Amino acid sequence: MFVRSRRWLAAGTVGTVLVLGAAVFAQAPATPTFSKDVAPILYKNCVSCHQPGNIAPMSLLTYDQARPFARSIKAKVVSGSMPPWHAEAPVGTFSNDRRLTDAEKDVIAKWVDGGSPQGDAQDMPRAPKAVDGWEIGKPDLVLTMPTPFQVAESGEIDYQYIEIPTNFTEDKWVSAIELKPGALSVVHHILAYARDPNATAPPSPTFKPVGPSLPPRPAQPNAQGAGQQQQPRGTPPRNVGVLIATTAPGTNAMTWEPGQAMLLKAGTILTFQLHYTANGKAASDQSSIGLIFAKERPRQEVHSSAFVNATFAIPPGASDYKIDSAIEFNENARILALFPHTHLRGRSWEYRLVYPDGRSEVVLSVPHYDFNWQTYYQFAKPLSVPKGARLEASAKYDNSAANRSNPDPKIEVHWGEQTWEEMQYSGITFIVDEPGRTAN
User: Fold this and answer.
1) Domain range enclosing 252
2) What is the pLDDT of residues 149-183, one digit of tens each?
3) Are residues 58 and 205 in the same domain?
4) Percent of the chain that is helix, strand, coil (3-state, to 5)
5) Domain count, the chain
6) For 307-322, how does the pLDDT look when each residue is reduced to its tens digit (9 = 90+)?
7) DSSP secondary structure string for all residues of 379-396
8) Hey, is 2 helix, strand or coil?
9) pTM recorded for the entire structure
10) Are residues 100 and 150 in the same domain?
11) Crossing angle (nearest 10°) for helices 70-79 and 102-113
């Protein structure tokens, strides 16, 4: 009787364990699949670069394209090195923030650890494929360099300034703008300027430089022997107009909110500043700019500009050298985006807004600047700047041998256009408040 009871209990226990085990197995979370779980994450944060014809070395649009790189994707995502993002701010501060959430990182890690299954192809979201390579969609107008520029296979290439007439017969309001390099392998960056040839005087500036700015132009003899003033290397000629667009590795196209647009006057002439970098193979570049026009006159005009400090000299071996610049606002304004730019010695940036009453706050901190990813940080909520406020920009540089990217730690470094020289440059996109409106 006792023996029989023990056997019955044992059998019952085994049965209970089997039932519980089956229940636990049934409740175990399924391995994420590419189609349903991973593709939406990649499409939202990664494929703006990882698609055919763009700057990334491989496309991640399809399962067959992504699967061979699964373990590498996990390693880059978990470490935070991809997607590249270098600002230190809460999620939601910037509209173009590429960072993944912890939950999104976990999905990718579990997908890789679970064998990287494809899943049901019907679960795939629609791919956000750019229209003919344009991030902004199909432009209303594309303007291209008149003739290709031939990039030599080696040697230092001076900045090129190429004029492109718009032939506008009337004023145009632009709601989205994008620069498209013709040869990504050799185009480091493009700055696009717009000049109104019919303007009798430059527009009143919304802000003015405070403290160090561009150095005075040294007098240089012209062909007749008279003195003429000349810009420092790497700064544009005076007659190119205002900066309207920028592209470099990692930047996004600019699309503004409804009711916001940039004005290009009738007869506007565009000038591309092109920085080419020889890579051992000759190339031909014919870059373009794409414009989408606003459907109606906007409520707010978007302006784009920049401020710099070109007066510095970074000592040899200096590992934490600070260079400052600042502007003071003459009108109430709202900052839409900021673009910090240095070269290979740049290590960090900080932008601080100082209000007329003396209080201040950090509005952009980039503690680990990366020259390879030139991000134009676009604020989800524009920064309100009252008249009389200052925007202070501080950049730090590492000119020591410990900086593996440093071209030469034994030399004193000055402002210059080439990557072995340096810059302290800040792009800024903003709107001006209506007269009488107080920024808040």
Assistant:
1) 141-432
2) 999 999 888 889 999 999 999 999 999 999 999 98
3) no
4) 15, 35, 50
5) 2
6) 999 999 999 999 999 9
7) EEEEEEE-TT-EEEEEEE
8) helix
9) 0.80
10) no
11) 150
